[in-house]
Amino acid sequence: MPETTSAPTVTDTRFAPVVDRLASEFSGVHHDSTVTRCVDAARHGAEEVTGRATPDLVERIARQHLQVLALAFAERA
Known about the structure:
Order of helices and strands: HHH
Structural class: mainly alpha
């Protein structure tokens, strides 16, 4: 069941296409605000661990987080 919160804007415009792709991929599963938060968290985590955050790396990390969240939501239902 999708969440019903308003979507925050991504803090770094380089990652807006990542948010768009993942929001489309997880449409009906996660609200856009969840996708945005996952992308921002993935960016911060990548920067903290590797010292940089490329859009490709951030997208892969965020996708994994969103998949895990989807599984957790499915188990709760």
